[in-house]
Design goal:
The protein has 15 helices and 11 strands. With about 350 residues, the chain is an alpha/beta fold. It has a single domain, classed as TIM Barrel, CATH 3.20.20.210. α12 links the parallel β8 and β9.
Length: about 350
Amino acid sequence: MAELKNDRLLRALLKEPVDQTPVWMMRQAGRYLPEYRATRQQAGSFMDLCRNKELACEVTLQPLERYPLDAAILFSDILTIPDAMGLELRFKTGEGPIFDKPVRSMADAKKLFVPDMASDLGYVMDAVSTIRKALDGRVPLIGFSGSPWTLATYMVEGSSSKTYAKIKAMMYDEPATLHHILDVLADSVIAYLNAQIEAGAQAIQIFDTWGGVLTPRDYKAFSLNYMAKIVDGLKRENDGRKVPVILFTKGGGQWLESMAETGCDALGLDWTTDIDEARARVGDKVALQGNMDPSILYASPARIREEVATILEKYGHGTGHVFNLGHGIHPEIDPEHAGAFINAVTELSPKYHK
């Protein structure tokens, strides 16, 4: 593999010194870019785009052609694992993902299995190795997965949900069924992320998008415990370098200390927790990634720059900060505004690393 020319992201995630704060964006390859929309149309459907290694590589690299980003993130979807379990995933325009075979009972749960990474999910690993080769050491490649709890919400509900009625009813009435589902998912995520690392992913992020809808007790039992199991099972070194692991629970700001105890290297923050408070709470235990409100990108470039300056100042001097949005970039954002954000981090952050 080519020597890494820009390793700022990996260094910051491991709290090593850097010359400036590294920056990337969740959903940086996506619908806000006209070039992405063109490639998506060429692919035919979203999953066809994920399954075509050349096109997945093309969209992964598109934001790097526009912006001075410090990382690429694999273009894929969090629902690849449940899809490979035979739950028949499809995407309906305006409604998002739908599973035609949701998991609603212990009998359904018992049919779940850890997919074969080579045959069932080989297209993801093909995309990882293709992207890694195309990057040629330019920046590191981030691999990812959904958390077991987040994947289970889609599998049990059968689609997106505002109330989580079906999965929460299962959690309260049939906890053994849900624990069985989460256990199979945790084993699957360990195998999936380790396969991504072997294929060339240099850092890993676990997206716990819906962890924040749980009570503190249920978050620990049904989300955090399974993420801790995954962190324990991951290959943490490859190609002679450490592979940092980032945990991101949207709405999880009240649980940062518990998340830091899992042994992960970094925590993703959404915009509802101030980064100075988060840093004071976790100390030197983990790096922090985040945490600008994605909606600030609707504002003027001058206002965006001000917000970047505020967050950099709040984090303060020293390493261990990866600048990112507090969640994925919204599809309607003007690409010029995303550029103003990234340029502001590049220009304003070096003084915090002297």
